[in-house]
Automatic annotation (TrEMBL):
CDD domains cross-referenced by the UniProt entry: Peptidase_C1A
Protein name stated in the entry: Uncharacterized protein
One Pfam family from the record: Peptidase_C1
GO MF annotation, one: cysteine-type peptidase activity
Organism: Oppiella nova
Residue ranges of domain Peptidase C1A papain C-terminal in the record: 136-350
UniProt keyword terms in alphabetical order: Disulfide bond
Amino acid sequence: MAAKNTSHLSALFKKSLEEKQSLHEMYKEFKTKFHKTYADKSEDGEREQIFKRNMLRVFEHNVDAMNGKSSYTEHINQFADMTEKEIIAQFTGFRMTPEEKKRMNGTVSGGHKKGRKGRKGKKGKGGKDQKLKDDNSWSYDWRSVGVIGPVQDQGQCLSCTLFATAALVESYWARIGNGIRPLSPQQILDCGLDYDVCQSGSAFEPVFNYVKDRGLTSWDNYPYQSRKNGCDRDREGRTVARINEWRWVAGNGDEGALHLAVQDNGPATIAIHASEPFFSYRQGIFDGPCDGDMNHAVLVVGYGYDKPTDMRYWIVKNSWGGGWGDGGFGYIRKDAGNRCHVADHCVQEYLDDKQNLEKTFKEFKYEFSKSYESREEERRREQIFRDNMLRVYGHNLKALDGKYSYTLRVGVDADLTPEEFRQNHTRCPFALNRPIAHNESHTGDKSGSVDWRHQGISGQRVLTHEDMIQSWIDTTGSSRTLTETTGLKGLHTVASQRHHHVSTLLEYLDDKQNLENAFNEFKSEFSKSYESSEEERRREQIFRDNMLRVYGHNLKALDGTYSYTSRVSVDADLTPDEFRQKHTHCKFGISPPIGHSKSHSTSVDSHTADKSWSVDWRDQGVIGPVQDQQDCGSCVPFAMAAMVESYWARSGHGITPLSPQQILDCFPGASCEGVHSTNFRPLLSYIQKNGLTSWENYPYTAKVHVIGKGSLNGWQPLELALFC
């Protein structure tokens, strides 16, 4: 059935693409979105033909993916008007030197070291290596511990090696306790090499040697410009991060060795072959053709296992901006014949016992404006700094292994002994000799938590009435000691007296002045006005009833009676009947489910029986933004538009908000009073025949308009969305 549907879909789409006007409109939208301009009409025509070929290729691949023939999808991105050769010539940049080829698997000199093989010496076939590879649930993602910097865009410059190197040093510097700080590939571009990397590309060895010798400054200090300029020696000298050694790891396709290197030592910079499907990659596990020469550098930040496809994968950080792949990250198939050469040419930073702490101490003094009274004092502080840095590094290694639940970093006080730090920063003058009275019945619940930063009021002492009510209403924890008091009264010291939350809040709600203030704040926030004083008094009473109802529900939610909480919102002055009248209006009945067999009602799917199994399409980036139907019973057009948005995104076109207003105006039986139809089929048929245009082209107005034929500004069916 699926194959039949997608085949029909493919035929319809191809037919649409053959219509010159439809394709031309899509091409115009592509140029606008990616700010494309060309030298003349002739080049524009050539780019349009390339765009059409790429669109057909991407669509046909995604049809195969929908049919289970591929584990990844592609989409139209900034490269859609370029050929594979053009992209390689302008947006990659890894060029391996003959010296690097010789040194890949041999001992090297000059401060960089030979990487290791698997624990037993041959391509990761050792006991632990193989055990880890055989455990399909085993995975690790260095992003999860906050040591991977933001995705960047190298632009039209062959600087991928510089970006991958800077990303590796960023990660290393974060792992030893300095936090994430984007570093400058422009510094390497201007100062590190005596040729123009934007035109020629670069290998790993000269780049890493430069970084080892000079360190890197921050992106903010030396921002990227996508072209080579003269070296700014002043900016270059403001070093914020460095490495002391670097080394080759893995090699000869040894994915087991790369696995262990990433597991034990952190991310690695690698060279891969980027091919045409890789340029348009969107999501999933990439297993496309990529066996050509290595031409692009990326950062491996982890690995994992995907149960539905039974595939292991590498997680790589690219340098083509957040529009490529999954927010700038990709997933390349792992342990499948060294796909894309991931384990042929790999580099990591290397921390050994002879690290140059003298340079690091100078950078510490510069960053925090440190000066000392004498040389003897400075030498003493340098030794303390070194001891603290080694302690921080050792602690963080254990934290990454799960032995600690927190990490440390080098800060302004890194030249103080622990005793000096306590003397300078603590000094609690009174003793807390006995524990504060606590309700022991709740001490066993480890799941409850509260963080006032999330409420946006940390540091405030006095809250408005609405803040006090809403902070309480939004509380979802189960603790009933200090948590309840802070929920009502703001941020207290731990010595504050506990209050019983029921009596306190009911007393608050019964206070007429408090209630009037809360209602006045509600009217102000949501710009409410009423026709008469009588109507306002009526709405105030409804508001109070709703507030008490919400509060009562949330008390039961805190007790575990309900699994969700409620809150006071824009419609808090409406009765339940008024709310339904305003927002729902689904007027058709659905007797039997469409295409549903009674036999299914008693069957138990294996996934249904597995309570741990779940899926959230938001995680795949195929769900559009939440919209507001306002005072119009248009939930059905909104739900249909959202479904088609998701389908269109899953087909590789990205998220484009579609127009429920088109359905409201053009579909017979649709109005702000609801959709008058026996089921969904007529509406689905309308969308299949006519498609949907974008929200931007046909914006929502929360009312019905009379639309004449041809009044959609030249819009053609299948221009943006097609449902089948």
